[in-house]
């Protein structure tokens, strides 16, 4: 059997050369670009905290109703008085800009809002058809993987922390070997085995049918997008009920509490697969990276400090250098903007589960931020430097004035 495959490949990571430069001008791979100048849709920088948002649960929408309720508080005051339909229309146009599959289109074509929306719709439609084709033809091996069964998937220690849902509860199971990089034991060995077998089964089907699949991003030749073969709902649950509570505590300043979209995939490394992964930042606010196995050597993750778009290529400070060795079943949680890469897997096969979690609210608000990012180390260094210079200038001025009074 031969099936027709992939539409335009999805977005991905933004690669950064180890010595600092972004590959290919930095606009490729689904990295968020500035909106076209004519786009007039605006949000407030601070939410209207006393405004009670509408409920959107009963509408058929392409984003979660909760996203609309959260975003509503950021609407310009005059819009808050409009009908629910008007608000939905306004917010949808903003949100559509953040649908990952739209990024490529946006970079090349868009000249007016309507045209943009139509092009995105076509892309979405194509992508839905692509997924549908896979889902209706691929025979699942372990059906129990496709719905969330927390007790079968996760270790009791992890479940206990999630149920407690307190900062201390999370800290009890986590290590933070480098600021902003959290590691913890997460998956049951049986779950890892089943997911590995499912991925293998899917790859076998792809091979046999010659179905042209999209790889997780432009940096990988191997691996598979789990969302494309039926795991989207289960992974949404993973993000909402497990990753968002933790991110709310540890990554609030990068939208950790408003994560509302994900890209879920596995990567496969080995001498006969992808060997390593270059230095990059993820197209995510928060990334979950869990090793599924199997046996391997090498493949360490290397981290090199958190940077905003403007500072992505700046030098690494010695205290930012951190290398991590993967352990099957163990998870790493970090900001998408934490620069990192993976060293060569020198023997065996390493397969990792990745969940890039995004917040559309955070992405919209980031556009209005003029000054320094609280989470970018380089922004903070520049800010301190600017303050130091300003204090020095004031001191000098005071001394000069004192000198004048004395004479
Ligand atoms: O291979 C790894 O563990 C890193 C994967 C990664 O950074 C990514 O997919 O964004
Ligand atoms: Fe990454």
TrEMBL record:
Record domain Fe2OG dioxygenase: where: 260-359
Entries under InterPro entries matching the protein: Oxoglu/Fe-dep_dioxygenase_dom (IPR005123), Pro_4_hyd_alph (IPR006620)
Region (Disordered): 1-53
Keywords recorded for this protein, A-Z: Dioxygenase, Iron, Metal-binding, Oxidoreductase, Vitamin C
Pfam families linked to this entry: OGFOD2-like
Cofactor: L-ascorbate
Domain of life: Eukaryota
Gene3D superfamilies: q2cbj1_9rhob like domain
GO molecular function, one term: iron ion binding
Official protein name in the record: Fe2OG dioxygenase domain-containing protein
